[in-house]
Amino acid sequence: MSNSNAVVGYRDVAAGNGDADLVMVVLQFGGRTIKGHAERGQWLAVEGLGTGLATTVIRPLGTDHAEEVSLEGVKAIFFVKSFDGKWHDDLRFHDHLPTQECLWVRATFADGEVIEGLIHNTQSYVVNSGFYMSPTDPEGNNWLIYVLKNKLKDFQVLGLRAAPKTMLGLKPLENLS
């Protein structure tokens, strides 16, 4: 779009109106980057994530007009303090520390049931449609639970834990016989 007035809900930032409501954003598409200003109010609250924000309205650097930008193929949206960026020569990851095998989590289902348990500390619980959880209740009847993520209302990571030797649910099912 070539005209900021053509985009509903976007103030004309070139005129200096509403600067307190603007954030600096960098949209990274992998090989392509767009830097600009966007209204703070257009970004979804945490509860609304995953509901399909398909486009955003941004005033790219060097222009006076806002335009609608498709988020198809975007790798990440960075909310920045400066467009200059900063290279971290001294950025430290904690690779020298031992990796904990499990995440202690609390899952709240849409029907209100709440369970706690241990899951593998891997990306699989994020990218797959479900995950295995080994319940932490020693008196309970369940020794393993497969949780379907689309049935969850809430999910919290409570901490990191080592995998107890007695937790059969964290081993592959085919090795449990």
Summarize the structure.
The protein is mainly β and 177 residues long.
Provide the succession of SSEs.
EEEEEEEHEEE
User: What's the number of domains?
Assistant: 2
Structural class: mainly beta
Q: Unreliable runs, pLDDT <50, ≥5 residues?
A: 1-18, 172-177
Number of strands: 10
Instruction: Note the gap between the termini.
Output: 62 Å
Strand order across the largest sheet? 4-3-2-1-5
Largest sheet: 5 strands, antiparallel
Q: Classify the helix fraction into a percent range.
A: under 10%
- How many helical elements? 1
Label the CATH architecture of the largest domain. Answer: Roll
* General form: elongated
Radius of gyration: 22 Å
**The first-level CATH class name of the largest domain:** Mainly Beta
| Approximate strand percentage | 35-45%
Average residue pLDDT:
76
CATH domain fold name of the largest domain: SH3 type barrels
Tags for this model:
177 residues, mainly beta, SH3 type barrels, five-stranded antiparallel beta sheet, 36% strand, elongated, disordered C terminus
Give an overview of the whole structure:
- This protein folds into 2 domains: 4-80, SH3 type barrels, CATH 2.30.30; 102-169, Roll (SH3 type barrels), CATH 2.30.30.
- The longest helix has 4 residues, at 124-127.
- Helices cover 2% and strands 36% of the residues.
- β1 (22-28) and β2 (33-39) form a beta hairpin.
- With 177 residues, it is mostly beta strands.
- A 5-stranded antiparallel β-sheet has the order 4-3-2-1-5, with no helix packed on it. Strands 9-8-7-6-10 form a 5-stranded antiparallel β-sheet.
- The chain has one helix spanning 124-127, and strands at 22-28, 33-39, 55-60, 67-70, 76-80, 102-109, 114-120, 130-135, 145-148, 152-161.
- It has 1 helix and 10 strands; from the N terminus they run βββββββαβββ.
